[in-house]
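CO-FOLDING WORKSHEET

Operator: S.A.
Ligand of interest: adenosine-5'-triphosphate
Run index: 561
Mode: holo prediction, single chain
Checklist:
[x] sequence pasted
[x] SMILES validated
[ ] output reviewed
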Amino acid sequence: MTTEQTTSPPRAGVGIAAQGLGQSVRSGRQILTDICLSIAPGELVAIIGASGAGKTTLLEILAGVQRPAAGTVTYDGSAAAGTIGVVPQDDIIHRELPLARTLRYAARLRLPSTTGPAEISDRVAEVLAELRLTDRAATPVGLLSGGERKRASIAVELLTRPGVFFLDEPTSGLDPAIAVELLRLLRALVDTGATVVLTTHQITDVDHCDRVVVLTRQGRLAFTGTPAAAREFFGLRSLVEVHLRLDEATQPAEWPDRFAEHRAAEQRPRTTDDADVAATPPWRVGRLRQWAVLTARNTEIVGRNRLTLAILLGSPLMVLGMFALLFRPGAFEPTRPSPTVTVMILFWIAFGGFFFGLTYGLLQICTELPILRRERLAGVRLVPYLLAKVAVLLPLLALVDLALLGVLRAMARLPPVGGTDFAALYATLLLSSAAALALGLLCSAAVSDAAQATLMLPMLCFPQVLFVGAILPVPAMAAGGQWLSYAMSNRWAFEGLGHTAGVERLWRDGGSPLGPPLLATYGDSFSRPVWVDWLVLGGFVLLFLGAAWAVLLRRDPRRAS
Ligand SMILES: Nc1ncnc2c1ncn2[C@@H]1O[C@H](COP(=O)(O)OP(=O)(O)OP(=O)(O)O)[C@@H](O)[C@H]1O
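OUTPUT RECEIVED:
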């Protein structure tokens, strides 16, 4: 296999030293205690231990994904990790795109901005060849086999030629032959100078490694050294029985204590202080380029997923059809208006804009949180990430809002307003959709999965129906309801639409006896200049996007101890 390629600089393996690592969870339970270990540059290392022993936690701390509650990790003697590759357990790259496209986007997000398109193509081709995926380049990621997907996931990280790779259970779920092939691949990476650290449940994987780190069930270090030394230390012919041997201990600290004594007698291992290779300084792609790449990728994902696109555009059209069937024409006819119908038309248009925006945003983030988490490690920032969502979805919303207003006006369900007023109606509806989109993104950032997001939908919609002031006018609400109505973006959209549609004049001066009493009930709901409604709706957009940013920042594992 080709390992060193023409366009890539040689890789420098990174030495890692962990001192006194400890981690605890919210309940206060200690899940890792006083882990001290040293990994030399260019070693292939397996972390093993029973389920729940803390393997993933240790890997994430070593990779800088989690902050330890105690202790330090240094890379070649420095606290800065340089360029590292983290390959999580789940297959977390977008499944819709062909593999080569996925890698191109990943490269544009990870490589320095000065890297030109030809260089990116070369790098992607190199990585595909290195991971023996060249013939799968045009296959959508979702159609790759489990082993190929795992290699694809490694390929994403290989693009930057990191000096150290961390892989969480790379062989889990793979058949033994594919697992061995993957381990050989990792060995080939090590042979090019990289340091590779992985967790595994497959004890046979350890035989392919230079070093094994054994954790007890209590998250203590029972051993670190070569697999042969581990067999000798535990008095085993095969490490397959290592968990049984650990469980024979009468005290949780028995093996860690024995190992501490053994280590004290052993020669001092090569530590990172001895290391002579500096980690590559990390670079970060600029915000604007990140936004452009993410927007292009989102657009391509939406475009390739025809069914999603059909639902995104088709469901508003269905709603539009329902409105056309529900409302008779001529409710805004000045000589014979139907005041109660005008309220309903304006309210349902406002609610339609809100609902489309909300549903567009609600599944956007929660369905790709692991991808975001991974890309955050590669330097992706949250502002470009959120704005790239808006950049793709807002034009679609602009299209459906325009269709909604245009068709209803053409079918005489709206007043025959001129160009300026139509533009004002459109601006109100689009801002309302944008606020709802931002609210959807916020909720999507706050939940853990699509099921929770879907459950939130009624909770978000009900108040935007009840407290908007359409079904029950704001002056007729209880005091609490009146206060709550200020927080409903839909209220400002409904009242803004009503102002531009001229309902006050229509009810007061139109030919319906129902108009004046209705106007008395609604008070001055529609008398505000529409730009005030626009300002408020714009404020909601910023508020919800800001809150989504804050929530995502809080969820960043590197902030948690
Ligand atoms: N955020 C968290 N909150 C509460 N408990 C946690 C959290 N993260 C991990 N744990 C607990 O810490 C322990 C170690 O978890 P970890 O995932 O590191 O173990 P593991 O050895 O990788 O397990 P497995 O082999 O089953 O994947 C487990 O008991 C787990 O339930």
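REVIEW:
Residues 307-328+343-559 form one domain.
The two ends are 41 Å apart (CA to CA).
[x] output reviewed
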